[in-house]
Amino acid sequence: MLSRNILFYEKLNLEDNFETRIYLMFIHFSIMMKVSKRKGIKFDQSSYDLLFHNIENNLRELGFGDVSVNKKMKDFNKLLYDILLKISNEDNKDFKLNKNLVFKYFNVLKNNNEVKYSLFEKYFTEFYNFCFELPYENMIRDAIKFKDNYGST
Asked: Among 20, 21, 103, 118, which residue has the least CB neighbours within 10 Å?
C-alpha cells in the first residue's frame, strides 16, 4: 500500500510499474528493519518471510514459471540487502537517506531538479520518524497508517 502513494507517481514522476513498487517496498521495509535495530530489537523473521511470500505469489499471478520465479526471488533478496545495507549512514543517530542509493534505483530523481529528490528524502525521513515512534510489536501493521503531507497513502 505504501508503494502506491500518489506522491511517487504524480509529484515525483516515478514510473508506475512492478519494479518501482518493489524498490519502494524494499525501502520502506529496510527503514522498518533499521528502526528495529536502532531500538535494539531483533526484526521478526515472519515479516520478512511474508513479504517475500507475497512477492512470489504476485510473480506467479503475472504468469512467471517456477524457474523464473526462483531466479527473480534470489535477485530480489540481493536487492533488498543492497538497499538495507546502504539506505542510511549508520554513524549518526539521525536517519539520513543515502542519495547515491536513491539515484541508483530512481534515475529520474537524479536527472530532475533537487526539489523532487528533497521531497523523496523528506517523505522517507518522516516515515522513519513515524515508525520510530510506534511500538515495535505494532510497527509493521501500523506503518501502513503513515500519512505524509504530500499525497495520500
From this structure: 118
Does 14 fall in a domain? yes
Write down the residue that cell numbers 520510530 correspond to: 132
pLDDT at 153: 46
Exposure pattern of 28-48 as b/e (b: 16+ CB <10 Å)? bbbbbbbbbeeeeeebbeeee
How many residues are recorded in the chain?
Answer: 153
CA–CA–CA angle 95, 87, 47 (5° rounding): 95
pLDDT tens per residue, range 132-151:
998 888 887 788 788 765 55
Cell of 119: 521531497
User: Is residue 49 situated within a structural domain?
Assistant: yes
Match 500519512 to its residue by C-alpha cell. 147
Residue 71 sits in which domain range?
2-86+96-143
- Helix, coil or strand: residue 62: coil
